[in-house]
Every structure is written in C-alpha cells, then in structure tokens.
Amino acid sequence: MSVGSERAVTAESEVAEICRDLIRIDTSNYGDGSGPGERKAAEYVAEQLAEFGLEPQIFESAKGRASTVVRIEGEDRSRPGLLIHGHTDVVPANADDWTVHPFSGEITDGCVWGRGAVDMKDMDAMTLAVVRDRLRTGRKPPRDLVLAFLADEEAGGTYGARFLVDRHPELFEGVTEAIGEVGGFSFTVNDQARLYLIETAEKGMHWMRLTVEGRAGHGSMENNDNAITELCEAVARLGRHQFPLRITKTVRAFLDELSDALGVRLDPEDMDETLRVLGGIAKMIGTTLRNTAQPTMLGAGYKVNVIPGQATAHVDGRFLPGYEEEFLAELDSVLGPRVKRESLHYDKALETSFDGPLVEAMQTALRAEDPIARAVPYCLSGGTDAKSFQDLGIRCFGFAPLQLPPELDFAGMFHGVDERVPVDGLQFGVRVLDRFIDLA
Ligand SMILES: [Zn+2]
C-alpha cells in the first residue's frame, strides 16, 4: 500500500467503473436468443461477488441465457429475506444514431454513457458496489439479502426471472419483499421539494389479434361484406376511443403527496392541470390514468383485384390494476360483434400499498441524503420482472435510487438514444441504497 494520496476503494469510488464495465458487455436482447452477452455479464457479476468470498450461482435457462443469484446471510436469519433484482440485458441500440458508441461505456461530461445506463445497469452497478463495500468492511445486512441479476427482462423475462421463479423457487425461500426497477429516480418540483417516484403498481397487458371474416370475391363485383372494410371501421373506432379516467389508489396517493409537496390541492378530475405541473414526468403519469388499446399492425389481402375473406389487426392493450374486466368489456363493445378477439400475450397488473416499514426505510434513506426528498408512489405503464416475483408472494417495489439533474429527461432515456446516467447520481444512489439496506 502506498502512502499519501491513495484513497481506499469505496462503493462511491467504483460504482461508475462497474457501470461502465457492464455497459461494455453488449447484452442486447433481440427477443430471439441471438443476443451476445448475457452469459458474459452473468460471469462478470459473479466475479465481482466472488472476490469477497460469496459463492454466486449462474443459472442458464437456454444456451447463453444466464442469470446470477447469490444469498447473503443477514444478522437475524429468522427475519424474512429481501430480494434486490436487476436485469442485465438491454434493448438493442443503433450506433449511428448516438453521440458516443452505445457500448463504449464512456465516462464524459460527468455521465456514464451507453445502452443500459438507466435501464438498468446503473442499478446493477449500484447493487454490486454497495454489496462489495459491505463485504469489504465486514458489515452484514440486518436480514438475508438475495441478489438476482437476470437475463431476458426486455423480452418478457421468460429466460430470466420467469425461469428462476418456475424452476428454482428455492432460491427465494423466505423472501417477502423486493426492490428493483423502475423507480427511485428524482423529479425536482422546486427548491423545497424533490419527489422520488417509487413504483408500487404496474399496468397489465393484453396483446391481441383481431379478425374479421367476410365474403371473398372478385374486386370488380359489389360486396357488402368486405372483411377489410369491416375490420378497418372497428380498428378506427378503437384507435379513436378514449377509455374513461380511472384514478387507482396508487395515482390517488401520488396526487395526495404531490398536492402536499406543492401546497396546492390537485383535482383528480382535472388531470390536464396536474400533468402540466409535472413537466418531464407527465408522460409517465399520464399513461397510468386510463386503460389504453392501440392498433399496431394490419394484415389483409394478396392481390389488388381480389377481396380477401379475412382481415386481421393487432392491438397493444394495457389495463390498470383492478380494471381488467372493465377493459375487456369496453373493448368488445367498441369493436362490435363482427370482430373476433384472441389473446396473444397476457401479463397481469400489479398493485401494492405505499406503506409499511420498507417504504419508511426508503423515505428515511432518501431524506438522509437529500433533505428535500419525498418518496411518492406511482404506477408504471409497462411491465417488469416484478410480475414474476409476485407469483412467489413477494411484495415488489421499483426502487433504484437515483438523483437526477432537473433538466435530464429521464423518461426519454429509457430505450432512447444517448442514454446516460450522471456519475454523481450513481454515487447518491449507492449512499441511499447502503442506508436503505441497514434500515430494511
Ligand atoms: Zn428495465
């Protein structure tokens, strides 16, 4: 050991490098198993943990589809365990669109740049840095921690979280609560209030195929039962349909907290005004106020002078927790009796309450590092691996603490071009996460 200026390695000092290393492993998930890097990422994670004496296990659900899991013993082993999960795969990136190469992990202008910087190699790196620091300094967590670094989240988790939950549930024995994506990031309201959005709910999804059968025939003939015409009318009705405003308990709790932070009463019936106040995160909140069904694909016909007997469309449907039945009934009434609707892919909605000791721990840990912090619940319009873990009875939260400069468009970073994360945001995150583990 040299003397003088050399400083000890800490979670804060190495988190950006770990994030960079992870970004440099191209873990693009194309949804067909051809992605190049999940195995390498799983091995990298395992090495980082093994360096301090842990014995992580790597599980391969199919060739190259690897996830890493480790359990860290807590002080009180009679307490239920806490799961911290993150996915290691990323959505693909087109290098031509980027300022820096998306897999360079370049650290410049105070940010780590690259695909996965906010979704979610940031949290993977923070978790690794914190756990390494705790092992280095001999600080046990108060209760068992299970860490899971997972493949395949970006394509639905079949080869990652879903596989582990179905085939290796013993890994999560005794675990009752979990944190993961997408939450914990900041939204600065003004100089007295910074909200940290904790994910407590997720919309569910129905991906559907619509089919109309009609009378096939020659294009020169009259036809009052043209499948294309019938389908297009139904699809147009659906595309223009606005589902009614539904304030779920999560959105209501969000509005209450926000009203309190702003010192103004926000009217749930006047969400336009509320969304205006929300600036950059309005997009994320706005889409959790209603069910939605967007037509996304059309198919019919094979020749210009032939009326086909069938026409199809695909629809991406998303429903709020508690409103699935209403969603399907309304959908059918908008589409009408001619349309046959089939489900291609289904995922449930989730919702837990914003209360209890774990939520307190988040609030306290955030407040200790940011005096104007206020944790607020919100509903994610998409889905995460939490949907799989919930099947084991685990109560899941999106909590990957990250303080962001007000001007950074966080929502736009997800799957976006020039995805990047501020280094000081990561350092803030490790301090909060470390405190949180002690309080959890
Ligand atoms: Zn993600």
UniProtKB/TrEMBL annotation:
Stored InterPro entries: ArgE/DapE_CS, Bact_exopeptidase_dim_dom, Peptidase_M20, Peptidase_M20_dimer, Peptidase_M20A
Keyword Hydrolase belongs to the record: yes
Record's keyword annotation contains Cell membrane: no
Pfam families xrefs: M20_dimer, Peptidase_M20
Location of the Peptidase M20 dimerisation domain: 200-331
SUPFAM superfamilies in UniProt: Bacterial exopeptidase dimerisation domain (SSF55031), Zn-dependent exopeptidases (SSF53187)
Coiled-coil annotated spans: none
Cofactor: Zn(2+)
Domain of life: Bacteria
Keywords: Hydrolase, Metal-binding, Zinc
Single GO molecular function: hydrolase activity
Family that this chain belongs to: Belongs to the peptidase M20A family.
Protein name: Peptidase M20 dimerisation domain-containing protein
Provenance organism: Kitasatospora griseola
Species classification: Bacteria, Bacillati, Actinomycetota, Actinomycetes, Kitasatosporales
